[in-house]
Amino acid sequence: MPAAAASAGGVERPPGAKAGTVRRNRQSLPIGLIAALAVACAPAMGATVEVKLIQTPEGMTYFDPSGVRIARGDTVRWIQMSGFHSITAYAPSNGNHELRIPESAKPWDSDILLAQYPKPGSTFERVFSVEGVYDYFCKPHEMAGMVGRIVVGQPGNGPGTKPFGYAPDKHWQQVPDVARQRFPAVSEIMAKGAVHGR
Ligand SMILES: [Cu+2]
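Above: query sequence and copper (II) ion SMILES. Below: predicted holo C-alpha coordinates.
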Protein backbone atom coordinates (compact mmCIF):
# COMPACT_ATOMS: atom_id res chain seq x y z
CA MET A 1 0.00 0.00 0.00
CA PRO A 2 2.65 2.62 0.93
CA ALA A 3 4.83 1.44 -1.97
CA ALA A 4 1.96 1.80 -4.45
CA ALA A 5 1.12 5.25 -3.16
CA ALA A 6 4.72 6.34 -3.38
CA SER A 7 5.17 5.09 -6.92
CA ALA A 8 1.84 6.59 -8.02
CA GLY A 9 2.97 9.92 -6.61
CA GLY A 10 6.27 9.57 -8.41
CA VAL A 11 4.56 8.92 -11.71
CA GLU A 12 2.00 11.69 -11.29
CA ARG A 13 4.44 14.54 -10.78
CA PRO A 14 6.69 14.48 -13.83
CA PRO A 15 4.26 14.65 -16.81
CA GLY A 16 3.81 18.43 -16.75
CA ALA A 17 7.45 19.13 -16.08
CA LYS A 18 8.77 16.59 -18.56
CA ALA A 19 6.43 17.27 -21.50
CA GLY A 20 9.13 19.00 -23.50
CA THR A 21 11.62 16.26 -22.83
CA VAL A 22 9.18 13.58 -23.93
CA ARG A 23 8.59 15.34 -27.26
CA ARG A 24 12.30 15.69 -27.91
CA ASN A 25 12.76 12.05 -27.04
CA ARG A 26 10.14 11.03 -29.58
CA GLN A 27 12.21 12.58 -32.35
CA SER A 28 15.51 11.10 -31.26
CA LEU A 29 14.11 7.66 -30.39
CA PRO A 30 13.92 6.27 -33.94
CA ILE A 31 17.54 7.24 -34.63
CA GLY A 32 18.62 5.68 -31.36
CA LEU A 33 16.62 2.56 -32.13
CA ILE A 34 18.13 2.20 -35.58
CA ALA A 35 21.64 2.51 -34.16
CA ALA A 36 20.85 0.02 -31.41
CA LEU A 37 19.35 -2.45 -33.89
CA ALA A 38 22.35 -2.15 -36.22
CA VAL A 39 24.69 -2.98 -33.36
CA ALA A 40 22.48 -5.77 -32.01
CA CYS A 41 22.02 -7.37 -35.42
CA ALA A 42 25.66 -7.41 -36.44
CA PRO A 43 26.76 -10.33 -34.24
CA ALA A 44 23.39 -12.06 -34.63
CA MET A 45 23.73 -12.35 -38.41
CA GLY A 46 24.81 -15.99 -38.17
CA ALA A 47 22.41 -18.86 -38.41
CA THR A 48 21.29 -20.97 -35.48
CA VAL A 49 21.51 -24.75 -35.83
CA GLU A 50 19.63 -26.99 -33.42
CA VAL A 51 20.83 -30.29 -31.99
CA LYS A 52 18.52 -32.46 -29.90
CA LEU A 53 19.61 -34.39 -26.82
CA ILE A 54 17.79 -37.67 -26.74
CA GLN A 55 17.33 -40.75 -24.61
CA THR A 56 15.03 -43.40 -26.03
CA PRO A 57 12.72 -45.46 -23.81
CA GLU A 58 15.17 -48.33 -24.40
CA GLY A 59 17.95 -46.19 -22.91
CA MET A 60 19.85 -45.32 -26.07
CA THR A 61 21.36 -41.84 -25.82
CA TYR A 62 22.56 -39.60 -28.64
CA PHE A 63 22.87 -36.13 -30.12
CA ASP A 64 20.71 -35.57 -33.18
CA PRO A 65 22.24 -34.64 -35.51
CA SER A 66 25.53 -35.95 -34.15
CA GLY A 67 27.48 -34.08 -36.81
CA VAL A 68 26.84 -30.56 -38.10
CA ARG A 69 28.65 -28.21 -40.43
CA ILE A 70 28.22 -24.51 -39.68
CA ALA A 71 29.75 -21.20 -40.73
CA ARG A 72 31.97 -19.08 -38.52
CA GLY A 73 29.76 -16.94 -36.29
CA ASP A 74 26.87 -19.39 -36.32
CA THR A 75 25.20 -20.55 -33.12
CA VAL A 76 24.48 -24.12 -32.08
CA ARG A 77 21.50 -24.54 -29.76
CA TRP A 78 21.23 -27.86 -27.96
CA ILE A 79 17.76 -28.87 -26.79
CA GLN A 80 17.16 -31.49 -24.13
CA MET A 81 14.21 -33.54 -25.35
CA SER A 82 14.49 -36.62 -23.12
CA GLY A 83 16.89 -37.91 -20.49
CA PHE A 84 19.49 -35.71 -18.78
CA HIS A 85 22.62 -34.66 -20.61
CA SER A 86 25.52 -32.24 -20.82
CA ILE A 87 27.32 -30.68 -23.78
CA THR A 88 31.00 -30.77 -22.89
CA ALA A 89 34.00 -30.00 -25.09
CA TYR A 90 36.82 -32.50 -25.38
CA ALA A 91 39.48 -30.45 -23.62
CA PRO A 92 41.94 -30.99 -20.74
CA SER A 93 40.10 -28.39 -18.64
CA ASN A 94 37.07 -30.71 -18.70
CA GLY A 95 38.20 -33.62 -16.55
CA ASN A 96 41.57 -33.96 -18.33
CA HIS A 97 39.92 -35.12 -21.54
CA GLU A 98 41.89 -35.19 -24.77
CA LEU A 99 42.02 -31.83 -26.59
CA ARG A 100 39.78 -32.17 -29.65
CA ILE A 101 38.75 -28.57 -30.36
CA PRO A 102 40.85 -25.82 -32.03
CA GLU A 103 43.75 -24.66 -29.85
CA SER A 104 42.56 -21.04 -29.84
CA ALA A 105 38.91 -21.92 -29.08
CA LYS A 106 37.51 -21.65 -25.59
CA PRO A 107 36.48 -25.00 -24.07
CA TRP A 108 32.97 -25.14 -22.68
CA ASP A 109 30.87 -27.32 -20.41
CA SER A 110 27.12 -26.82 -20.16
CA ASP A 111 27.04 -29.15 -17.16
CA ILE A 112 23.90 -31.25 -16.97
CA LEU A 113 20.84 -29.39 -18.22
CA LEU A 114 18.16 -29.29 -15.58
CA ALA A 115 14.91 -29.56 -17.51
CA GLN A 116 13.14 -31.08 -20.47
CA TYR A 117 12.16 -28.91 -23.41
CA PRO A 118 10.29 -26.51 -23.51
CA LYS A 119 10.98 -25.56 -19.89
CA PRO A 120 13.71 -23.02 -19.04
CA GLY A 121 17.01 -24.78 -18.42
CA SER A 122 16.47 -27.29 -21.20
CA THR A 123 18.64 -25.55 -23.79
CA PHE A 124 22.25 -24.47 -24.14
CA GLU A 125 23.74 -22.23 -26.81
CA ARG A 126 27.21 -21.44 -28.04
CA VAL A 127 28.51 -19.18 -30.82
CA PHE A 128 31.43 -20.63 -32.77
CA SER A 129 33.89 -17.99 -33.96
CA VAL A 130 37.01 -20.11 -34.57
CA GLU A 131 37.15 -22.39 -37.63
CA GLY A 132 37.93 -26.06 -37.23
CA VAL A 133 36.64 -29.35 -35.85
CA TYR A 134 35.04 -29.54 -32.41
CA ASP A 135 34.40 -32.85 -30.67
CA TYR A 136 32.21 -32.90 -27.59
CA PHE A 137 30.51 -35.39 -25.30
CA CYS A 138 27.74 -35.86 -22.76
CA LYS A 139 29.20 -36.38 -19.29
CA PRO A 140 26.66 -38.97 -18.09
CA HIS A 141 26.71 -40.88 -21.37
CA GLU A 142 30.20 -40.62 -22.86
CA MET A 143 30.76 -44.25 -21.90
CA ALA A 144 27.60 -45.10 -23.84
CA GLY A 145 28.99 -43.30 -26.89
CA MET A 146 27.00 -40.05 -26.65
CA VAL A 147 29.32 -37.73 -28.56
CA GLY A 148 29.01 -35.10 -31.26
CA ARG A 149 31.14 -33.25 -33.77
CA ILE A 150 30.88 -29.76 -35.25
CA VAL A 151 32.84 -28.46 -38.22
CA VAL A 152 33.05 -24.67 -38.33
CA GLY A 153 34.01 -23.42 -41.79
CA GLN A 154 36.89 -25.53 -43.07
CA PRO A 155 38.14 -28.43 -40.90
CA GLY A 156 41.81 -27.41 -41.12
CA ASN A 157 44.31 -29.64 -39.30
CA GLY A 158 43.62 -28.89 -35.62
CA PRO A 159 43.24 -31.33 -32.72
CA GLY A 160 39.77 -32.50 -33.75
CA THR A 161 41.15 -33.81 -37.05
CA LYS A 162 43.86 -35.90 -35.43
CA PRO A 163 43.59 -39.61 -34.59
CA PHE A 164 42.25 -40.45 -31.14
CA GLY A 165 45.07 -40.72 -28.63
CA TYR A 166 47.35 -38.51 -30.77
CA ALA A 167 49.33 -37.17 -27.80
CA PRO A 168 50.08 -40.03 -25.38
CA ASP A 169 52.78 -37.94 -23.65
CA LYS A 170 50.05 -35.58 -22.33
CA HIS A 171 48.43 -38.36 -20.29
CA TRP A 172 44.96 -37.15 -21.14
CA GLN A 173 41.95 -39.32 -20.49
CA GLN A 174 41.34 -41.35 -23.62
CA VAL A 175 38.15 -41.17 -25.65
CA PRO A 176 36.40 -44.51 -24.99
CA ASP A 177 36.24 -46.96 -27.89
CA VAL A 178 32.44 -46.92 -28.03
CA ALA A 179 32.53 -43.14 -28.38
CA ARG A 180 35.25 -43.19 -31.05
CA GLN A 181 32.98 -45.25 -33.24
CA ARG A 182 30.07 -42.85 -32.95
CA PHE A 183 31.75 -39.71 -34.34
CA PRO A 184 30.61 -38.98 -37.88
CA ALA A 185 33.58 -38.58 -40.24
CA VAL A 186 34.57 -35.00 -41.01
CA SER A 187 34.22 -35.78 -44.71
CA GLU A 188 30.63 -36.96 -44.19
CA ILE A 189 29.77 -33.82 -42.22
CA MET A 190 31.28 -31.66 -44.97
CA ALA A 191 29.33 -33.53 -47.64
CA LYS A 192 25.94 -33.69 -45.90
CA GLY A 193 25.89 -30.62 -43.64
CA ALA A 194 24.14 -32.62 -40.92
CA VAL A 195 24.66 -36.28 -40.04
CA HIS A 196 21.88 -38.09 -38.24
CA GLY A 197 22.80 -41.29 -36.47
CA ARG A 198 20.98 -44.09 -34.72
CU1 LIG B 1 23.60 -37.82 -22.44
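The chain is about 25% helix and 20% strand.
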